[in-house]
């Protein structure tokens, strides 16, 4: 049992050590990336809706 506790402690220390090496984005970078993600998601949603609507309309006319 002690071996598992030692391994868990080493794992935790390793995780903390690696997390200190991470280059975290600034608040402004996070805001900018969020705007980009929301914009691209909106554009893709509109594109998907448009293609679906066109295909549905064409299939409705055919059938």
Automatic annotation (TrEMBL):
Pfam families, alphabetized: SecE (PF00584)
GO biological process: intracellular protein transmembrane transport; protein secretion; protein targeting; protein transport by the Sec complex
Complex formation: Component of the Sec protein translocase complex. Heterotrimer consisting of SecY, SecE and SecG subunits. The heterotrimers can form oligomers, although 1 heterotrimer is thought to be able to translocate proteins. Interacts with the ribosome. Interacts with SecDF, and other proteins may be involved. Interacts with SecA.
Keyword Magnesium in annotation: no
Statement: the UniProt record of this protein carries the keyword Flavoprotein: no
Localisation per UniProt entry: Cell inner membrane; Membrane
Entry keywords, A to Z: Cell inner membrane, Cell membrane, Membrane, Protein transport, Translocation, Transmembrane, Transmembrane helix, Transport
Positions of transmembrane segments: 33-55
Protein name: Protein translocase subunit SecE
GO molecular function: protein transmembrane transporter activity
Family under the similarity heading: Belongs to the SecE/SEC61-gamma family.
PANTHER family: PROTEIN TRANSLOCASE SUBUNIT SECE (PTHR33910:SF1)
GO CC, alphabetical: plasma membrane
Summary of the function given for this chain in its UniProt record: Essential subunit of the Sec protein translocation channel SecYEG. Clamps together the 2 halves of SecY. May contact the channel plug during translocation.
Protein species of origin: Chlorobaculum parvum (strain DSM 263 / NCIMB 8327)
Membrane-topology descriptor: Single-pass membrane protein
């Amino acid at each position: 049992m002690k071996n598992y506790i030692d391994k868990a402690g080493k794992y935790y220390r390793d995780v903390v050590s690696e997390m200190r090496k991470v280059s975290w984005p600034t608040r402004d970078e996070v805001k900018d990336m969020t705007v980009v993600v929301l914009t691209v998601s909106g554009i893709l949603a509109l594109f998907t809706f448009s293609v679906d609507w066109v295909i549905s309309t064409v299939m409705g006319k055919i059938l």
